[in-house]
Each structure stands twice: as structure tokens, then as C-alpha cells.
Amino acid sequence: MIERSAERHEAAPEPARGNGMRPELGPHVAAALWRRQMLEILRAWCMSDAHAQITTDVLVAADLTGIDSHGMALLPLYRQQIEDGGATATPNISLVHDPAASPSGRMRHFY
């Protein structure tokens, strides 16, 4: 005969619903809200819509895959770099194809 313990084990309490908090994970924020907030921050820094969208996509993707060090946590660093002149919120980026930069101008070694 198997004896059952008279002692009851209580289940861990459920996280409070509605407040978005799970103490072990920190606050829960919907990705769409996070994305909108990040876009607004970058636009407030005079970043173009195109650059703000690309930056937001990269940072949100990093956060959603669990790479917090490469996500939204970088915003304060980016802001400091912009203020210090080490980065710009309004870059003028152009891609240049320079055949002289590759051997014989053809890059055969990559095929």
C-alpha cells in the first residue's frame, strides 16, 4: 500500500495578470509598442524614417532573439555618441564599387 503524504505542496503563485510583470523576466512589453517607441526616439534625434526603420529592425530583432546587449539597450550609447560627435543621426551613406580594390578587378578568388 502506498502512503500519501498529508502535507500539501502549494503551487507557485501565478504572475499577476494585467500588469505585464513577470518578476523573473522583468516587464513584458509588446514588440509592436517597443518598435513604435524606438522609432519615435530615433526620429526625435532627427534620424530619417528610412534609417530609423533599419535601426529599429536590427535592435528589435536582437532583443527578440535574446541578445539584449545588441538591442534597445544600445540607445543610450547611441545617444551619447551622437552628442559627442562620434556618430551621426543623419548619415550620408553611399556604396562604391571599386574594381581596383580587388585582385585583377574581378575577385575571382571568391568563386
How would you characterize the overall build of this protein?
With 111 residues, the protein is mostly helical. Helices cover 36% and strands 4% of the residues. It has three helices and two strands. It has helices at residues 31-44, 49-64, 75-84; strands at residues 21-22, 26-27. A two-stranded antiparallel sheet has the order 1-2. Strand 1 and strand 2 (26-27) form a beta hairpin. Helix 1 runs antiparallel to helix 2. The longest helix is centred in the middle third of the chain and has 16 residues, at 49-64. It is globular and about 55 Å long. The termini are far apart.
Task: Show the helix and strand layout.
Layout: E1 21-22, E2 26-27, H1 31-44, H2 49-64, H3 75-84
Helix pairs in contact: 1-2
Radius of gyration: 24 Å
Largest sheet: 2 strands, antiparallel
Categorize the overall geometry: globular
What's the total number of strands? Answer: 2
Query: How widely separated are the two ends?
Result: 74 Å
Order of helices and strands: EEHHH
Helicity range? 25-40%
Strand content: under 5%
Supply the helix-strand structural class.
mainly alpha
Strand order in space, largest sheet: 1-2
How many distinct helices? 3
The stretches of 5 or more residues where confidence is low (pLDDT under 50) are none
> What is the residue-mean pLDDT, rounded to a whole number?
76
